[in-house]
Predict the structure.
Amino acid sequence: MTSLSSWRERVEVGAATLFRYTLSVQADPEEKKLVLVMVGLPARGKSFTARKLARYLTWLGYDTRVFNVGEYRRERFPGHQPHHFFDPGNRENLRMRDDLAEAALEDLLTWLVPDGDVAIYDATNTTRERRAFITKHCDEAGVSALFVENVCDDPEIIEENIRATKVGSPDYAGHDPDEAVEDFRKRILHYARAYEPVADDEGPYVRLIDAGRLVVMHDIEGFLPGRVVSFLMNLHYSSSPIWLTRHGESISNVQGKIGGDSDLAPRGHRYARSLAGYLIRGVSEFEEMRVWTSSLRRTIQTASVIELPSTQWRALDEIDAGLCDGMSYREIRAAMPDEYHARGENKFRYRYPRGESYQDVIQRLAPVIIEMERSRQPLLIVAHQAVVRLLYAYLMGIPPEQAPHLAIPLHTLIQLTPHAYGCHETRTPLAPPVPKQQPSS
Ligand code: F6P
């Protein structure tokens, strides 16, 4: 099972000998691999929760995959299946559906045991019998199972879920939306007849009631289940956009130097004014907006023109370039060629001497992500190149290893608006444009 661990390595920099401490995600023989078993009636937000969990755990460095039994069904029985296909009284269909669920579980364990860290089994799993079957197979494979049950009796939330995720799904391609909703409601009733909520004697579980208004947990133990639960406790569906931007151009940017805590350069101040003007004129949610910056001068100055209170987070500070702070990439290549090349080899894992790697930055950003998920208000985050890359990768579900190579130009506002299973993106370049910068590696 993966967990955080560290080791020490000797690094020669000119005449000095340093020790590099590396924090990484590594095998921990004590902790078992984990299967998160989704439970709940259709349209209760299971797939939404499963995908959010997968995105968060992947971003933290856990090799995570979702196994969705609905996709197995669509592959075996393509096209629309009317509601009576799901009638538990139809013995033949029930057996076929059980076969599909078993095939998905088998694939899940075949992947998880040798290769993965966390598998998410996304199906209704609404009967004790089905859950006992899953637990038995997980026990035999030597992995832990944790039930994540989504319960919801709020007709408004259910209706919204059906319209947002089911009407446009391949199950109803080409169907009239109102007929699709009607058919889906009948499908839910079939499941409801056989539904048995998870009981305490079935094993550890988290129950999310009415889209996270109430969270109940039972028998949760261990580092990873604890992380899963703390994420779920803060999770809710929000359609409020998140805006990401780097600070305006700084004096260090103009000089081509990395890191530091310089003030904004004249073009950077102009960007701060353009940004504030754009937000007031072009964003209807402006009044409710929360603004977060790092603790560094260039982000605080960028946000200072916006007439809204802002919160400073040290966790949003730029990647710490350690001994290379204040140098240009050209100077690093000349003075520390090994370091320069090592970064080019693996920019995600590379740690600056006495500084940080992108992988380290993820660990310190974890509380920011939790707070971001908890927030119900529109949010503007003014941060730095490496940090915005990582936040953007999280929100867009991009593997974290790719984050160091994402293009996040200065003087560009990125708006990410959540939809059912992801975010819609718009980028707005704002004045003044900045000349192309020298790439780092
Ligand atoms: O150059 C601006 C900057 O924010 C530096 O302070 C930081 O070290 C760098 O970008 C991060 O980008 P990269 O990982 O591509 O070097």
Summary: Residues 2-27 have pLDDT under 50 and may be disordered. The longest helix spans residues 91-112. The CA atoms of residues 1 and 30 lie 8 Å apart.
